[in-house]
Design goal:
The chain is α/β, with parallel strands linked by helices. The chain is built from 22 helices and 15 strands. Helix content is 44%, strand content 14%. Helix 5 packs across helix 6 and helix 19 packs across helix 20. The relative contact order is 0.14.
């Protein structure tokens, strides 16, 4: 299957490219993204066929439907990464919280956040492609806390790929910082920046678009790629767990094949939600996809009114920091799928130059046929965490907890709702401890212990060990010095 561009073709690039090309060179014409030319039709026969398949077997079948130009052995090695999850036979458990609320736990990988679902296999694919071509790649990542650890973990000691990861010093949780600064491998560099996440992100964007920087890298025989969710190599792995979760509900007797469900996604850059959208288009019986946000509710407004508005908005700091995003990159792939390349280019240009755009009434109706949305304040998130724990005995992280608002407000029909849990409680323990016991300003280690006691949950070893591991990465610099630091690492 080939890949085409969301904003059309500029004549200087090929009009359609292979999967491996789209992975290694994720930036398309006019600043657009790559999307599959046509989605495979899986339908109910596919669901019937995979009712008893384990996760890797299902994953293999979904990937093969895309006919990627990746050999069979590489796909096997990529999917083998799921063997390192808590339970290799069930990397994504789906927990029934009530008759209409199921939680699909996407966080059982090495860094305890859902980024592992895509980045773990993606790391194998990218490194293998780079080796086959005899090319060296640099992955630059800026992180507010979850992408960084997952990117470092997947590329650790992988040939032909180096990772430089920028994080705001003091702007992440203790656990997230330790996950990064205790990573010790010659191909990894972790760089703390004096400033906020936005500063790290802005510095990164400036480097990515600097011709001089590209030229200096070329002088060191290194190319730039990207491991964020603009890369379709991540999205392809994010469709599988939506199909898996549906089949789990069938296996648990909650639905029969063909019944519709809601998917409820805590959203930032919209990669997770896009995976659900593609799964629905490939034939998964989905009533609607519920898009849950925190107070950075630009997506809620977009789905309610058709207006995507960045002007006069500032990113707010919330208790679900991985969703503190205003410019949600994968929305572009939805625009393309619904309205085509010409309109997508027009809308994205308006977003860049005017700081926003307005969909027509007819376009909005098409958007609302698929999506509904709501957002939760930090206070509502804490209440949701506390009540779900006290009434149902189920503990969720703040990102997951944003979904309970849409669960209550967005379902017109009494159908089961699959909420995607994107992080383990261990990653955002101070917020959760505050929700459960009222204690505030706890350090992660104290909050972890107190939750562990209250909820009778043990702290997983990869988190507990972090506090005793030696610090391997101690660089903290001014943002003006990032380029120099990265080049000396290469
Ligand atoms: C990345 C992340 C999200 C947002 O996912 P998108 O695919 O960017 O919408 C939500 N929750 C957590 C914990 C994350 O790490």
């Amino acid at each position: 299957m080939n890949f085409i561009e969301t904003r059309g073709n500029d004549g200087s690039r090929p009009a359609s490219v292979s999967f491996s090309h789209a992975i290694l060179n994720p930036m398309a014409s006019f600043g657009g993204l790559y999307v599959p030319e046509k989605l495979p039709a899986l339908g109910e026969a596919f669901l019937q066929q995979h009712i008893d398949s384990d996760y890797k077997t299902l994953a293999r079948a979904v990937l093969e439907a895309f006919e990627p130009d990746i050999d069979s052995d590489t796909l096997d090695r990529a999917l083998a990464r799921y063997d390192d999850f808590d339970d290799p036979a069930q990397p994504v458990p789906v927990v029934r919280v009530s008759d209409e609320l199921f939680v699909s736990e996407l966080y059982h990988g090495p860094t305890r956040a859902f980024k592992d679902m895509a980045l773990q296999p993606f790391g194998v694919v990218l490194s293998t492609l780079a080796q086959a071509r005899g090319e060296n790649y640099l992955i630059l990542a800026a992180t507010s806390g979850d992408t960084g650890p997952a990117t470092l973990e997947t590329f650790k000691n992988q040939a032909n790929v180096k990772v430089a990861c920028l994080y705001p010093d003091g702007g992440t949780s203790d656990v997230q910082r330790l996950q990064m600064v205790t990573e010790d491998a010659p191909n990894l560099k972790v760089i703390g920046i004096h400033g906020a996440f936005d500063d790290a992100q802005t510095a990164l964007k400036a480097l990515l678009s600097s011709d001089a920087f590209h030229a200096r890298l070329a002088g060191k025989h290194t190319r730039l790629s990207a491991a964020n969710s603009v890369n379709f190599g991540r999205i392809i792995f994010q469709q599988i767990y939506h199909i898996h979760s549906y089949l789990e509900l069938v296996r648990q007797g909650a639905i029969t094949i063909g019944d519709k469900v809601y998917l409820n996604v805590p959203s930032g850059n919209f990669g997770n939600a896009l995976g659900g959208y593609y799964a629905m288009k490939m034939g998964l019986p989905v009533e609607k996809i519920l898009i849950s946000s925190n107070s950075n509710n630009v997506l809620t407004d977009w789905i309610h009114t058709g207006r995507y508005q960045l002007r006069d908005r500032k990113v707010l700091t919330t208790s679900s920091p991985a969703m503190d995003i205003l410019k949600s990159s994968n929305v572009e792939r939805i625009l393309f799928d619904l309205f085509g390349a010409q309109r997508t280019r027009e809308l994205m240009a308006s977003l860049d130059t005017e700081g926003g755009y307005q969909l027509s009434g007819e376009e909005l109706a098409r958007l609302q046929a698929v999506f509904a949305a709501d957002f939760a304040s930090d206070e509502e998130v804490e209440t949701a965490i506390r009540e779900t724990f006290e009434q149902r005995g189920y503990l969720m992280d703040p990102h997951t907890a944003t979904c309970l608002k849409a669960h209550a407000s967005c379902r017109d029909k009494a159908l089961p709702d699959i909420v995607y849990s994107t992080a383990e409680w261990t990653k955002f323990s101070p917020t959760i401890a505050h929700a459960l016991t009222g204690e505030s300003d706890a350090h992660d280690i104290d909050a972890l212990r107190s939750i562990s006691e209250t909820a009778k949950l043990s702290i997983p070893s990869m988190i507990a060990e972090l506090f005793d591991r030696p610090i391997a990465q101690s660089t903290v610099i001014d943002k003006r010095d990032i380029e120099k630091e990265v080049l000396s690492f290469i």
